[in-house]
C-alpha cells in the first residue's frame, strides 16, 4: 500500500475520507471570517432605519449565521461535527453601501473551526440577501474569506486586511 500522509482527506487508494484527528492534541482553536454584501444606497438606508418588509434583518441574519456554524458538518462534506464553545456574528453597515459580516468561532478540540466561521459568514450574508431581495435583487455577496485562525499545529494565520478594509468605512 502506498504511504499516505497522516492527516489527509485521501485514503491509501486515493478515495475521499474524513480525516482521523484522534491523535491530534486538544488545543484552543479560534477562527474569524467575513463577508461583504453590497447594495443600493436606498437599501442600506432602509436597513439602518429598520424599515425592511421582513423585519429585523440584522437579528435574523445573526441567528442564521450562528445556527449555520453549528451545522457546518451537515453542509460541507467531510467536516467534523464540533462542539463549539463560542460563535459570534456581527453585522455592520458601512458608508459605501455595504454591510460587513464578521464571525468568530472557538472551541477546545482536535480540529480547527475555519469552515464554521466561513459558513457562518456565508449563511448570514445569504440570509441578509433573502430578507432584502424584495427591495434590491442586485445585491452582491463578495469577499467571503478567512481573516484569522489560531491554534493547532499549523499555527497562526492573519490575512492581509488592506484589500477589503480600504473599500469599507463604518457608517457614522
TrEMBL record:
<comment type="pathway">
    <text>Cofactor biosynthesis; molybdopterin biosynthesis.</text>
</comment>
<dbReference type="InterPro" id="IPR023045">
    <property type="entry name" value="MoaC"/>
</dbReference>
<dbReference type="InterPro" id="IPR050105">
    <property type="entry name" value="MoCo_biosynth_MoaA/MoaC"/>
</dbReference>
<keyword id="KW-0456">Lyase</keyword>
<feature type="binding site">
    <location>
        <begin position="78"/>
        <end position="80"/>
    </location>
    <ligand>
        <name>substrate</name>
    </ligand>
</feature>
<dbReference type="InterPro" id="IPR002820">
    <property type="entry name" value="Mopterin_CF_biosynth-C_dom"/>
</dbReference>
<comment type="similarity">
    <text>Belongs to the MoaC family.</text>
</comment>
<feature type="active site">
    <location>
        <position position="130"/>
    </location>
</feature>
<feature type="domain" description="Molybdopterin cofactor biosynthesis C (MoaC)">
    <location>
        <begin position="18"/>
        <end position="152"/>
    </location>
</feature>
<dbReference type="Pfam" id="PF01967">
    <property type="entry name" value="MoaC"/>
</dbReference>
<comment type="subunit">
    <text>Homohexamer; trimer of dimers.</text>
</comment>
<keyword id="KW-0501">Molybdenum cofactor biosynthesis</keyword>
<feature type="binding site">
    <location>
        <begin position="115"/>
        <end position="116"/>
    </location>
    <ligand>
        <name>substrate</name>
    </ligand>
</feature>
<dbReference type="GO" id="GO:0061799">
    <property type="term" value="F:cyclic pyranopterin monophosphate synthase activity"/>
</dbReference>
<dbReference type="InterPro" id="IPR036522">
    <property type="entry name" value="MoaC_sf"/>
</dbReference>
<comment type="function">
    <text>Catalyzes the conversion of (8S)-3',8-cyclo-7,8-dihydroguanosine 5'-triphosphate to cyclic pyranopterin monophosphate (cPMP).</text>
</comment>
<protein>
    <recommendedName>
        <fullName>Cyclic pyranopterin monophosphate synthase</fullName>
        <ecNumber>4.6.1.17</ecNumber>
    </recommendedName>
</protein>
<dbReference type="InterPro" id="IPR047594">
    <property type="entry name" value="MoaC_bact/euk"/>
</dbReference>
